[in-house]
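Morning!

This is the sequence you dropped in the shared folder:
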Amino acid sequence: IALMLILAACAARRPAPVSDSLTPPAPPVVEAPQPVPPPVDKPIATHVVKKGDTMVSIALQYGLDYRELAAWNNIVNPNRIEIGQVLVLGAPAGMAATASPVTTPLVTPAPPIEARPLANTPSTKVEPRGSKVPFTERALAQMGAPDAAGVPVTGAPPTTIDAAPPQLPSPPVAEPEKPAGTDREDVDWMWPAKGKVLAPFSEASKGMDIAGRKGAPVLAAAGGRVVYAGAGLRGYGKLVIIKHNNTWLSAYAHNENILVKEQQDVRKGQKIAEMGSSDTDQVKLHFEVRRQGKPVDPVKILPAL
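The structure's back. Tokens below.
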């Protein structure tokens, strides 16, 4: 009986299940790499020329050099632009950020002559004196008059003027070079002249007035490049504008003598002019600072006295 029970128990055992551990694992699914889209070029801002615009006024509005603006738009004569013309405000693809200067010099008018009545002729009509206007884009656009530094954009042929050949830029002053196209705002500022502040910054004047004596040195408030030097803006006399980088400009008005030329590199503290009273009633320096073309109170960026 015991033997039969043992045999019955052995016959009732089932075979062990076959393990699946020997089955090789399925290979991992590898996703195909996604194609990288080509970089999209950022569109360049533009400006549509309006009546009264000049290359200088447009460049000042956007904090640019009018020579580079002309070169970016293939304009060889900066004195001639048309109403409705679309100007790009940056270097097109494939063109260097700093373009070559234009071939035609900007026309700068002679200082205006005040008309006076002749003796014993009280009925003689004369032209009124030119009034002073703030240093704004609208005022600078007055240079578009027939006797100003830009031919009016009316489509009429410009008056032929025997202008002197363009001056070659002076050799650059030794100073650490900044990368092209930089927007750094770490400009090292200094006061452009020694003297009492006659009039602080205001929205109307766009700058501040500093008193001084005739012939006193006017210094570059920071290193940069001269983008305008002339007397083409009524109410500001002999004017110098310096571009410090792609963000900052500074302007120096009412000078007696200008000692620099356009496209000349200057260093901080370099004498650029002599203080005077051109187109004003007393000796003083009118000083302006602009950030991307917008007026800024110079006291907020100049070192404390």
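Headline: The longest strand covers residues 248-258.

More detail when I'm at my desk.
O.
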